[in-house]
């Protein structure tokens, strides 16, 4: 009978030892757990940065992001915030008592327990974040090509009727800046005889916009030349947008993809400067895209 009682007691003791040992570990090894949590938080940040880079690249190329990837990113943000709260608590908590002679078991237990939970959650997220691809191959519904809604071309080369280089240069510059602030204008034309300084003026406009951090998220400078190559022009714009056009062989397909990219974010403002344009602008657009622009023929 005594042997049975001893056997039962041993089994009970074994069952109790594991949780007791685990809870004691929270107190004894709290500092070690916090250090490990710091390491895992950094690993999670590195994984998140890699995934975000892939997401940015996919979005630039008009690829629809997988729902599970978007969910993962949100979960990472939540868990990262919680982990930093635990680490902040480590800095604030009083981990000793009796004037520093003895460890504070309550504070260390809470810290070790929370750190252990966060370490497990972070490891799971890092493992889940090893995506083979962050986007779906199919295009999202409704993502089709379109035409730029051009409302007006403004002739600024004749402002004040003075000489382009001297008398009216400041006036023209101010006119361009004012036109760029007008949300209704989609195309602004600056034209005049060759060699009068149109390119230099537009460079000054670009520098001014960048210096003042104006409302444009991106400014793209495109060299057109006297014998324009549409594929090259599309390529220059695509490179600035980090957009991959290699899978689009036709000019129509490349144009549609550029249009989709430029209109993918309604809050993003992009300024495209077509420099050294010798031919009429309407040759770069279909007749229905131009409408009645009041464009002065040269």
From TrEMBL:
Pfam hit, one: NB-ARC
Record keywords: Plant defense
GO molecular function annotation: ADP binding
InterPro entries listed in its UniProt record: NB-ARC, P-loop_NTPase, Plant_NBS-LRR
Gene3D superfamilies in UniProt: P-loop containing nucleotide triphosphate hydrolases (3.40.50.300)
Residue intervals of the NB-ARC domain: 175-280
Protein's name in the database: NB-ARC domain-containing protein
Native organism: Eucalyptus grandis
């Amino acid at each position: 009978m005594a042997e049975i009682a001893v056997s039962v007691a041993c089994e009970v003791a074994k069952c109790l030892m594991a949780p007791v040992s685990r809870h004691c570990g929270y107190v004894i090894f709290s500092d070690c757990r916090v250090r490990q949590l710091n390491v895992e938080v950094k690993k999670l940040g590195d994984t998140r940065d890699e995934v975000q880079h892939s997401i940015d690249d996919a979005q630039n190329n008009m690829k629809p992001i997988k729902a599970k990837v978007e969910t993962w990113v949100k979960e990472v943000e939540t868990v990262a915030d919680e982990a930093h709260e635990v680490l902040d608590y480590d800095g604030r908590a009083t981990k000793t008592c009796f004037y520093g002679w003895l460890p504070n078991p309550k504070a260390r237990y809470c810290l070790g327990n929370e750190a252990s939970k966060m370490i497990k959650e972070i490891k799971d997220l890092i493992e889940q974040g090893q995506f083979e691809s962050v986007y779906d191959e199919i295009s999202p519904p409704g993502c089709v090509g379109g035409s730029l809604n051009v409302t007006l071309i403004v002739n600024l080369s004749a402002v004040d009727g003075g000489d382009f280089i001297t008398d009216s240069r400041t006036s023209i510059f101010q006119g361009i800046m004012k036109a760029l602030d007008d949300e209704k204008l989609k195309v602004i034309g600056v034209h005049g005889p060759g060699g009068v300084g149109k390119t230099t003026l537009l460079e000054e406009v670009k520098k001014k916009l960048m210096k003042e951090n104006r409302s444009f998220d991106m400014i793209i400078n495109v060299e057109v030349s006297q014998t324009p190559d549409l594929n090259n022009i599309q390529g220059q714009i695509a490179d600035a947008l980090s957009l991959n056009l290699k899978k689009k062989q036709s000019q129509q397909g490349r144009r549609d993809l550029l249009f989709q990219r430029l209109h993918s974010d309604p809050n993003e403002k992009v300024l495209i400067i077509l420099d050294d344009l010798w031919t009429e602008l309407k040759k770069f657009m279909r007749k229905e895209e131009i409408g009645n622009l009041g464009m002065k023929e040269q």
